[in-house]
Structure formats: structure tokens, C-alpha cells
């Protein structure tokens, strides 16, 4: 018998891990990937749109991203959005394609990015622990109100702890992979 609170907690913990993965995928590691542009939103057709909704993004080599927009009239807006983004890159265009050279990262910048990644991972760990704390408080209240037995409380508390440990481990794995990516760049 699993408690609905535990299922809910697992979904919330999964979201914390996914959110961290999404945030870290936008990190510039000195290697070109289409994901880098996920943080860029362009004013197009009356709304904010991601570049991958406006054209094809290719990576011909590890230091270049090429964007082939379906609507060439958006080249200026896309270029402007990229320059205004926190990526720190300088796009150029030939009227057809936008090219974004990705310069290698300095050692200092790599260390800085690693610190930021660690901070984001710690925030995700705290979110997971807060979910655990909330579930445990609710379970204790249910036990106090006679909705569950003391044995159920202990069993469910163990289940929540295992779930928490599993998600903290996932966060650590995501962080370790990103740190490796940043340092190898």
C-alpha cells in the first residue's frame, strides 16, 4: 500500500530533477549544441518564440551553430535576441543563415560556471528535501489524527527517505555530468 502523498512527492521530486536538467542544458560549455539557444526568446508573430520554432538549428562543428530561418524577414530579430541573451556570443548573418561562433571558455569562466551549476544543484536538493519535510509533517499529522497507524508512519517515512535519497543521487549525477562537460568543453 503506497500513500497518495508519496506518489505526489515522487512527481514533485522528478520535476525538481527535470528543472535542473533543463536549466543546465542552457549552459555554454565551450562546445556548440542546439540546446544553448533554448534560453533565447524572439519577438515574432506577436509572441515570444524559441528559435527552434522559427527555423532549423544545426551544429556543423563543435564551435559553430548555424540557424536557417524559415522566414528570412526574422533574421534581424533573431540576431538581436541572441545578442541580448546571457550567452555572450556574437552572431553574424549573410542574409540567409545566422552563424554563431562559440569561442572556447577560459579556465576562470569554466570554474565560475561550475560554481553556478553547483549552486543550482544545491537549490534542487533543497527543493527535494522540502518536499520530503512537507510529506513527513503531513504523515505525522495523519498519524496524530488516527488516519494512519504508527507502523504505517514509520514505513511511509522510510519510503519517503528512500525516494529522497534516489532523487538527490539523480541530482548529483546530473551535476557531475555537467561539471565534466564544462571542464572538458
Describe the structure.
It is a single chain. This protein has 185 residues and is an alpha+beta fold. It has two domains: 4-25 and 106-184, Ribosome-recycling factor (Topoisomerase I, Chain A, domain 4); 34-101, Gyrase A, domain 2, CATH 3.30.1360.40. 57% of the residues lie in helices and 15% in strands. The chain contains four helices and six strands, in the order αββββαββαα. It has helices spanning 4-25, 75-84, 107-144, 150-184, and strands spanning 41-44, 47-50, 55-61, 64-69, 92-93, 98-101. The strands form two sheets. The protein has a four-stranded antiparallel beta sheet with strand order 3-4-6-5, with no helix packed on it. It has a two-stranded antiparallel sheet with strand order 1-2. Helix 1 (4-25) packs antiparallel against helix 3 (107-144), helix 1 (4-25) runs parallel beside helix 4 (150-184) and helix 3 (107-144) runs antiparallel to helix 4. The protein is elongated and about 70 Å long. The mean pLDDT is 91.
Amino acid at each position: 500500500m503506497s500513500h497518495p502523498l508519496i506518489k505526489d512527492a515522487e512527481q514533485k521530486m522528478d520535476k525538481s530533477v527535470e528543472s535542473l536538467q533543463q536549466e543546465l542544458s542552457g549552459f555554454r560549455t565551450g562546445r556548440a549544441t542546439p540546446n544553448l539557444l533554448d534560453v533565447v526568446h524572439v519577438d515574432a508573430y506577436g509572441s515570444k518564440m524559441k528559435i527552434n520554432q522559427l527555423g532549423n538549428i544545426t551544429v556543423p562543428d563543435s564551435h559553430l551553430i548555424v540557424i536557417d530561418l524559415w522566414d528570412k524577414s526574422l533574421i534581424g530579430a533573431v540576431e538581436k535576441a541572441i545578442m541580448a541573451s546571457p550567452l555572450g556570443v556574437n552572431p553574424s548573418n549573410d542574409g540567409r543563415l545566422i552563424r554563431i561562433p562559440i569561442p572556447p571558455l577560459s579556465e576562470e569562466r569554466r570554474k565560475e560556471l561550475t560554481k553556478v551549476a553547483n549552486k543550482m544543484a544545491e537549490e534542487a536538493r533543497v527543493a527535494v528535501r522540502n518536499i520530503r519535510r512537507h510529506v513527513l509533517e503531513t504523515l505525522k499529522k495523519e498519524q496524530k489524527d488516527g488516519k494512519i497507524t504508527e507502523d504505517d508512519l514509520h514505513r511511509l517515512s522510510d519510503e519517503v527517505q528512500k525516494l529522497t535519497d534516489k532523487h538527490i543521487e539523480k541530482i548529483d549525477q546530473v551535476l557531475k555530468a555537467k561539471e565534466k562537460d564544462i571542464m572538458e568543453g
